[in-house]
Every structure is written in C-alpha cells, then in structure tokens.
Amino acid sequence: MNGLGPLLRQRLRRDRLQLLLWILGTALLAYAGYAGVSQSYGTFEDRQNVLAAALANPVILMFRGLPSGPAEGAFVAFEVLPWLAMLAALMSVFLAVRHTRGDEEAGRAELVSATPAARVAPTIATIVHGVLANLVLGALTGLALAATGLDAGGSLLMGAAAGATGVAFLGIALVAAQLMRTSRGASSLSVWVLVAAFVVRGFGNAAGVAGDDLTHLTSAWPTWISPFGWAEQTRPYDADLWWPALLALGVGLALALTAALLQSARDLGAGFLPERRGPAAARPGLRTAHALVWRLAAGSIVGWAVGAALTGLLATTLGSIVDQVAGSNPAVAQILEKIASSGSLEEATVGVFFTMLGILAACCAVQTVVRARQEEAHGTAEALLASAVGRVRWLTGYLVVATCAVLVVVAVAMLAAYAGIATNDGDASLYRVVTVAGLGQLAAASVFTAVTALVFVLAPRQTIGVAWALVLAGTMLGMFGPLLGLPGWSTDISPFAVTPTVSGGEVDVRGLWWLLLVIAAGAGAAITLMRRRELAGAQ
Q1: Domain ranges of the chain
Q2: How far apart are the first and last CA of the chain?
Q3: What are the tens digits of pLDDT across the range 37-74?
Q4: Pick from 436, 435, 429, 441: which is nearest to 415 by CA?
C-alpha cells in the first residue's frame, strides 16, 4: 500500500518515548507484583487466606483479578493482571486517537491526503503501529514475569492477555475516532467504554460462584462481555487458556478493520455522529474566559463527580461488611492496613476508598488543565488571546476551574460518605475520618493541578503525555506500593500516600505541608512564567 512504510516509521519515531514509558512501566509493574506477593504472602496458607477473604467480600473482587488458586503465579495474576491490562488499554486508546482524529484536527491528515498515499493508509499504519506496541508490551511483560522464576508458559500467557486487551481497546478507540468529530470526544468515548468494561468485569466477578476449595471463582456472565474479563479468563499459571486472549485479539482486529472501512466512507474532518448545534447567542454566564472554561469542562466534571459519589458511598456502607468478614478471617484487615495505615478496619476502609477518590479528583483536574493545551494546539486559543484576555488570565481560568472541579468531586464524595454513615447507623467518629480523608485527597489532587499547569508552560507539546504519566505513577506508588512491598520512601513520593489520616482517633497530618508547598510553588511558577511564553502550536 502506497505510503504505509513511511507513515509507520513516522509513528514509531514520534511515539518512541511515550511507548517506552508505557511498556517499561507495565513490565516493571508485573515484576514488582511478583516481588510484593513473595514478600507479603510468601506461604501457601497466606495466599489461601487472602483468596478466601476475597471470595467472601465482593468489594475485593471489584478491584482485583479472578481467583484461580493459591499457587504463587496464579496469585500474582489475581493481584496485578487487571491493572496490566488497564495500562495496555490506556496506551492503545491514546495511541489510536492521537494518530487518527488528533492528526485530522492538527491538519497533518490533510497533508498526507495530498500525497500519493492511499486514503486509508494512515489508519492502516496506526493499526499496525498499535498491534506492534502491544506485541512488545506483552512480550516484555511475559519475560519480566518469567525472569522471576515463574512458569514460562503462564508468564507468556499473562503478557499475551494484557497485550490482547490493548489490541481490543485499540479497535474500540479507532472506531470512536471515526464516530466522533473531535479527538476530545473520541478520547472521552473510549475512556468511558474502558471504565464501563472494567466495572462490568468487577460486577461479573462479584456475582460469581466460589469453588468448594474457596480459592477458585467461576465468573458470572457479565464478565464475558468485557475485554478485561477475557484477559482474566485465561487463568495464567492455572488452566492456561489461550482462547480468551485470541478472542480479544480477534475482536480488536475486527473493530480496527471496521474503522478503516468507516474512514473510507466519510469526509476528512467529519464524523458519523453529528455535533449538537449550539445556541445562536451566548447566555450572560458565558461572558468571561473563566465561564467558557467551565462550560467546556462541565460534562467531564459531572462524570467524575458521579464516580466520586459511588466511591464515597461505598467507603462508609461497606465498613460493617468488611468488619464482619475480618472477624472470621484477618486477611481483609491485612490487605487494607497495608494500603491505609489506620487504627481500625472502618478507618482503613475509608482510607482505601478515599485514596481512589483522590485519584479520580486528580484525573478530573488533569483533564481540565490539559484542555488548555488542546485549545492551543487546535488554534482556538489564539482567537481568544487576540481579544482583551491576556495569557495569565487565560491560564488562571483553567487553574480556577480545575480547582473548583476538584472541590466538587471531593465534596460530592464526602456528602455521599456522610449519607452512608447516617443511613447505616455508623459510628459517629467516622464523620471526622471522612472529613480528614476528603480534605487530604483534595490537597493531593490539587498537586496535579499545579504540576500539570507548570508542565504546560515549560513543555507545552509534552503536556498531555507527562501529565497523565505523573497521575499513573502516583497511582501505582500510592495505591499499590504497600501491597507490592515497595520501599516506604518510594511510596511517599506519591501525593495520594502522604495525605492526612485519622488513626486511633488522632489526626496525623503526614505530608500535608509539603503538598501545600508544591501547590503554591507550582501554580505560582506557572502563572509567572506564562507572562513571557509564546503560543506553541501542534507538532
């Protein structure tokens, strides 16, 4: 096909750094997963107890893999396989949208169309590029696991399951890029499908049937409509089933080819789903630059707030269930106390769920600030800055809206948590625990607001990749560092891990002061440096 080779080389050269970070990060997580399991759950009895506790508590099954026995390798898959698949899926989504709808918005696709390259050559090159990236990710992940001494066959299957999930979401994102008219819309649709697939997988496991040995689980049918569920059904180091991975691979390739057919049937820059017509005149509330930013970000803020409300409600309504399960099996307490160093199980449960809340709020903040880079790259910021709106005022608008968005997300979660305490006649002391945890995660999420703004000012073309990489690193260190047995200093790098907590009735402020210092320094530096920064177009 004309132009396929040069287009593929251009994509590989353009993405070499980002793909290196995604692939190495996934392989390192797999290796660290084995290290954490061998250190924290080194005996057969330890792993058996944890699996029994997971089968007794659907909440654990929502955020872990499919129990497939207490063998060391199978337990590693239970701990980290969903998250390896999640990394591959995110990598593939961003790759697909960047090289399809993103190139159309930036004008690069139009330039390619003016060459002898075939009409669908860019899409085909993106498909090959994405499949190769997931192939390397799966191979290195499998080799990292095999290097620990685990069975080579199970290790390669686990890597293949993660890579096949990435290919499935590559196809989903490519179709989304054909349906939506903007890269923002394509990314949002793809990520929402990803989140829904992950949640559906969790519900399928939570509604499954436990085996007689209390170490295996047969998932319910919802698991089979999710690519993440297909990855788990491979059961590495146990049944070693390859066909679910091949199913994910086949579905991904079928969707990718569908996207190529859709590409050939539409006009450049158009989408199959029409955009909603806006009003002829703006309402009074849109007269300021701040209001415009809020209008652009409102939809995504509502979505993050809904997730935060569910998180807050679960934080306080599941405490009694966890307490009952731990009364007969201390494994649940061991898991929670590794993540949140709290004095009681209910405090630990709130700590776990509010750490997830902090991650949701940070994602909301980053998505809001990153819009400034998207507006700049698309050329719409130039028209706004040609008016009476200055650079500093323009960037400040995004910082203010991002801060308000974080406040909304955290406040909704706290209100939902308070409602959970009131409706379940919970311990009144939990009100204080929720308040401290919520305000602490507010500070943690605000760190990412300030740092993303600073990256936008200093390295605008790297804003999106660096900002999301920082959130991912903070999540892995703060959420999974203790479970994986990582050193304390590495876990404390994550803002999510050093927020104030209530332990035994006492408030431990921990890293609150340095979080506030980073927020003030980062936001101040970004605003100051923005005074002399010129607009930076798309690459």
Answers
A1: 1-270, 286-533
A2: 26
A3: 887 787 888 888 888 877 766 666 777 788 998 899 99
A4: 435
